[in-house]
Amino acid sequence: MSLEHAILGFLRQQAMTGYDLKTLRFDHDAQHFWTADQAQIYRTLGHLENRGLVSSRVRRQRSRPDRKVYSITPPGVEELDRWAASPAPLPPLRDPFLIQLRFADHLPDDDLLHVLRERRQAMQQRLDSLRARAFEESRGSGRDSILHQLTLDAAIADARAGIDWLDNSLETLSALIEQERQTPGKQPRLFAPRTDERGSTS
Amino acid sequence: MSLEHAILGFLRQQAMTGYDLKTLRFDHDAQHFWTADQAQIYRTLGHLENRGLVSSRVRRQRSRPDRKVYSITPPGVEELDRWAASPAPLPPLRDPFLIQLRFADHLPDDDLLHVLRERRQAMQQRLDSLRARAFEESRGSGRDSILHQLTLDAAIADARAGIDWLDNSLETLSALIEQERQTPGKQPRLFAPRTDERGSTS
DNA sequence: CACTAGTATATGTCAAGACATATACTAGTG
DNA sequence: CACTAGTATATGTCTTGACATATACTAGTG
Q1: Which of B90, B165, B173 has its CB closest to that of A154?
Q2: What per-residue confidence (pLDDT) applies to B63?
Q3: Across the interface, do B93 and A155 touch by the CB < 8 Å criterion?
Q4: Which chain A residues touch B92 with a CB distance below 8 Å?
Q5: Which end of chain B has less neighbouring CB within 10 Å, N or C?
Q6: Can you give the residue ranges of every domain in chain A?
Q7: Taking residues B7-34, what's their average pLDDT?
């Protein structure tokens, strides 16, 4: 599981509780490449502890609920290093928006363009906030800091590519719509007009 | 569910069986933006039928198993159109490779570069096959065909962005490694300096 | 003749993830 | 004083998706 290894990675940097992992790490540091919900983090910590890859000790607190601080164990470090050097399969592209677009040929022109523009705006917002973060977190020349910056770069590259693609698509579709308007016999031809020589259309 | 709407979309184009949806559509047409396993397709068809969005009739065959041909119903068309115009939330970037990279600071230099190069090669292969498909399927100027081509463009843009990012990362990390080699001694560390925890020094 | 691949549908089971809710205490705000 | 937000852990449950297996018939290959 990826989440297991993300947790091991964070715990190797510093021992902490499930609450800290959620609020400090997954909601902030890792937010641009992996998210996890609280319930899942606690359950995964349980699994990792059962397998001996992390260990925990309870810190009693008076004015707060007790904290269960998790540390990575030597087998945990081993597992993390083993996994980090192993090839991960390319995750397939899997985007509901592309399903929408693929089957949008029955949408009114305005709706079609609107959906694309909305998507572009959302992507632009994501890009802006990623860039702001990248700027804020751009100091540090150690390896750890560089790796963090590279993950931000990946998210930025992804968003930029998405926006560029949307702009091109918007242009293509606008041109198509314009062209269809100028051709009153609006029959979308899926195949080439029937002028081929072989095989008569009986 | 996205899969439900993908199925509705395909069935609007043409009535077909679960088997056809799997082998002709999801394994080919939609392969670059959505995949689905056979069991899930059959079960989803069942749900859609229960909800009246598709209907089926059995075609008896002698030398083959019977075919259960599904057609989209008017409510199904309505649902598809409604969904196509509704805004889909941006799916978060979610890539196990970025977890690997983020926590790769303990990897030997060669392993680190190797992992990135392997990734680049896999991405390049994907890009090549996507480009080949885009070339083969580039005829057709109707709206349906254009929309299909746009989905291919999206996948191509994604792969290209990934490769560019990997090239930049490879360059950045090579430079960092080179620089670290020329500066022997203490490297900048974010956390406690690494001493041998073996305790008993002999 | 045994084996494999293709056509076709269906169920069982498990992991990952998302969402809701329970518990329990404190501190600050209106 | 009531309410809200914050700290902290935990369980219940549902959906999506992945993988395995069952059934059943035919055609081609070694």
Answers
A1: B165
A2: 72
A3: yes
A4: 35
A5: C
A6: 2-85, 96-182
A7: 96
Residues in chain A: 202
B12 touches strand C (CB under 7 A): no
β-strands A67-72, B54-59 pairing:
unpaired
Mean per-residue pLDDT over chain B, rounded: 90
Name the nucleotide nearest A1; use CA and C1'.
Answer: C16
pLDDT higher than 80, residue A62: no
> How far: A60 CA to D8 C1' (Å)?
11
CATH of A2-85, one of 3.40.47.10, 3.30.2130.10, 1.10.10.10, 2.60.40.1640: 1.10.10.10
Nearest nt to the CA of B46 via C1' is C10
Chain D nucleotides reached by a protein CB under 7 Å: 6-13, 15-21, 24-27
User: Alpha carbon of A141 to those of A17, A138, B17, B101, B189: distances in Å?
Assistant: 28, 9, 57, 16, 10
* pLDDT(B84) > 50: yes
Mean pLDDT of B73-84: 96
Question: From the CA of A64, how many Å to the C1' of C29?
Answer: 20
